[in-house]
Specification:
Layout (H helix, E strand, L loop, with lengths): L11 E6 L2 E6 L14 H25 L2 H10 L4 H29 L1 H19 L2 H4 L1 H14 L3 H10 L6 H22 L8 E2 L5 E2 L4 H20 L20 H37 L5 H27 L4 H19 L8 H31 L4 H26 L1 H33 L4 E2 L4 E2 L1
Antiparallel strand pairs: 1-2, 3-4, 5-6
Helix pairs in contact: 1-7, 1-8, 1-9, 3-4, 3-6, 3-7, 3-14, 4-6, 4-9, 7-14, 8-11, 8-13, 10-13, 10-14, 10-15, 11-13, 12-13, 12-15, 14-15
Length: about 450
């Protein structure tokens, strides 16, 4: 990213509290200096940010590494499409509770404690995932629910980013967080190709292969993170809600409250519509592709290519935002997802390959990266000085509910029904963004204020 800014030498304050380092970082930015040229305070910030991004990457890899083989894994242990929907929904149920739980832990116990607990849960869940050939399909359902619970730490990571960055920098760093998540989810399926060449018999009924290895790898990755967080993450004391001022005085409470509920709904839709493609993408692609040999490899390559395109989108978001207001980008992203959903609907003769790839490109590589980045960054900016842990947990929980509801629609209502609903709610979301901005303008005229509105980057 461009537009580097220099860090103030007094931008961070380091204190010793009971033998632990507490870091109060009040100014951030991309430094022009090399890492070894940074002051100790500046290094602490980048160490903290790097660990946060690492946690996000590993947590989201728990989806990316298993997506290409999940539906085949379910079938090998006796499940079908409905069970697949339950597995994906189970992950989201765990994440639903985890988002609120870890958001609360962040505000009461601090980020370090919350991250360690989440990684420990993820180790257990991923290990259990690899035991499905021995214990059956319920092992997959339970394991994915545990992994989802551990991944609820996303709310903590975003709150930590919000706490150590300025309001005007949030979009950039939220884009970074969304990018590493996207790498874990959309590019790690390509890494799963390695597992196709491993087949090690352990017993007569169990072997290490493309189905069981992802769980062990993910368990190991989370286990490695635990000591990194415990011994390298700078200590940041928890910030209870009672010690933080209610809101920025320059922004009316009506705008903040309305914005919170609007963007919680937007995250529900953004995550839910992506979950539809996640649930149905592999089997629909297999049908459209028309080949049965090496379908896992073909699916992984397809998702890898779409992921690379999406990653490029993440890296240009910061540049585009400087020229086009967030309002229009966010509205446009939901329209893109709606068009992609229209392409994924079977109008009679079946979904052909060109139709599928076009729809998946619009949803996976274009619409979702933009909508997720600006939904989260704008939400954080709306909150201002409010405690971010619990409220980030709320918006994370809303996304988890979307990932529960939409896969169930795909499993029980059919693929067409789920995509039709995705189109409707995406268009509704685009309308809500415009309606929210209209409401802001009404309040502007009523109050005749002239302060900068954090959520849209415009004057109100």
């Amino acid at each position: 990213m461009s537009n580097f800014v220099e860090l103030d030498e007094d931008a961070a304050e380091v204190k010793e509290i009971n033998g632990l380092q507490e870091v109060d970082l009040v100014q951030t930015g991309l430094p022009k200096k090399r890492f070894w040229q940074l002051t100790p305070e500046e290094r602490l910030f980048w160490i903290e940010m790097s660990i946060i991004l690492l946690v996000l990457f590993v947590a989201e890899s728990s989806r990316g590494l298993v997506v290409p083989t999940l539906y085949l894994y379910v079938e090998t242990v006796g499940g079908g499409k409905r069970v697949l929907g339950m597995v994906i929904a189970g992950y989201s149920v765990g994440r639903l509770f985890g988002s609120s739980l870890f958001g609360w832990l962040y505000n009461t116990k601090g980020g370090r404690f919350a991250l360690v607990v989440s990684c420990a849960i993820a180790v257990l869940g991923n290990f259990f995932y690899s035991l499905a050939p021995l214990f059956g399909v319920w092992s997959i359902i339970v394991s994915r629910a545990l992994v989802g619970l551990g991944s609820g730490v996303f709310s903590v990571a975003r709150a930590m980013i919000a706490d150590c960055t300025k309001v005007e920098e949030r979009t950039r760093f939220m884009a970074y967080s969304s990018a590493v998540q996207f790498i874990g989810f959309a590019l790690m399926p390509g890494a799963a190709l390695i597992f196709l060449y491993i087949d090690i018999p352990i017993t007569a009924t169990y072997e290490l292969d493309e189905y069981t290895l992802p769980g062990y790898v993910l368990a190991l990755m989370n286990a490695i993170i635990v000591p990194i967080v415990m011994f390298k993450l700078p200590y940041r004391a928890p910030t209870p809600e009672s010690t933080t001022k209610k809101s920025d005085s320059s922004v009316p409470e009506e705008i903040i409250t309305l914005g919170i509920w609007v963007f919680i709904f937007l995250n529900f839709v953004a995550r839910g519509t992506l979950a539809v493609l996640e649930t149905t993408g592999a089997p629909v692609f297999a049908s459209a592709w028309g080949k049965t040999n090496d379908i896992v490899m073909d699916t992984s390559i397809m998702m890898l290519i779409l992921g690379l395109i999406g990653l490029i989108v993440f890296f240009v978001i910061d540049k585009v935002e400087k020229r086009i207001p967030e309002l229009y980008l966010l509205t446009f992203s939901f329209i893109i997802v709606a068009v992609g959903g229209m392409l994924m609907i079977d109008y009679g003769p079946g979904v052909n390959l060109a139709q599928f790839l076009s729809g998946a490109l619009l949803i996976w590589s274009l619409g979702s990266p933009i909508s997720q980045t600006f939904t989260l960054s704008t939400f954080s900016r709306i909150l201002g000085s409010k405690p971010q842990g619990t409220l980030m947990g709320w918006i994370g929980s809303a996304g988890s509910v979307g990932r529960i509801v939409f896969p169930i629609l795909a499993g029980f209502g059919g693929i067409n029904v789920s995509f039709i609903i995705s189109v409707i709610v995406s268009l509704l979301s685009a309308g809500m963004v415009l309606a929210y901005n209209w409401r802001v303008q009404v309040i502007k005229r009523r109050m005749t204020l002239d302060v900068e509105l954090p959520q849209m980057g415009t004057k109100f």
